[in-house]
# Entry
Amino acid sequence: MNAIDPPASAQALALAARYGTEPKSSQLPWNDVIASLLEHRSVRGYRPDPVPPGTLETLIAAAQSAATSSNLQTWSVVEVTDPAKRAALAELANNQKHIVECPLFLVWLADVSRNERLAASEGKTLEGLPYFETFLVAAIDAALAAQNAVVAAEALGLSTVYIGALRNDPERIAKMLELPPGAMAVFGLCIGYPKPESAAEVKPRLPQEVVLHRDRYSTTKENDLRATYDARLEEFSKRQEMSAYTWTDRVINRLSTIKALSGRDRLKSIVVGLGFPLR
Ligand SMILES: Cc1cc2nc3c(=O)[nH]c(=O)nc-3n(C[C@H](O)[C@H](O)[C@H](O)COP(=O)(O)O)c2cc1C
# Structure
């Protein structure tokens, strides 16, 4: 930028942060909702301050406003307040301390048990229920609901982080939370106010051309753009996490060994055991 350039617009700054680039002038459709979405960042350190009264109810109303496949509403959520349960959840999730620290912790469930109970009380059998499709519907429903809660929380000035590591041991969670068959924890969610030292920067994403395809899937530019993104994420990680890693490193570390799955290599049989036959 030279001295006569005008200051970058809020939109240009938000897009630059999201993609790890310099601000470029842009005139995209824009409003406060989109600005808030682009500001998202996960936070892994929370102050003990409680969230304002009524926050949970607002977040759940937002979650219930998400689309849900055929209006089946195949998800539920458990607020966990018991410190002993929080500690056990943190431990099974590779000792993620924010699970204990955050003022509000939610466990999101793929849940077809309510539909099973409905059928039982009507004396009906749900032949469509034992299929993989139904588990997928329930997991998608839970994710869409939770993401609406995240968007609502961030719009209220709160921060969040999802906890997929709950899938390290869904059987223990099912016992702990007394889940019926047909209900399984798919991820957790920490909500609260960040500690000042945990206030994260926006983490850059892949260039849009890598994920957006038009009429046909194309990988022509993928390698070059991955190299570009590797450099951007390496810069980000140096600034934020004080250990330089590229996206390529991160993907390989996360997926190249079974050990890195932290027990989730057994997930298919666990899901079946929790009441989703996955036919
Ligand atoms: C389903 C899901 C599970 C996740 N599980 C964890 C987790 O167990 N621990 C954690 O620190 N972050 C977790 N994350 C957060 C991701 O690491 C994070 O979203 C990603 O690195 C991008 O960073 P950002 O959210 O700050 O943009 C999870 C995210 C999703 C969507």
In short: The longest strand covers residues 183-192. Residues 110 and 144 are 11 Å apart (CA to CA).
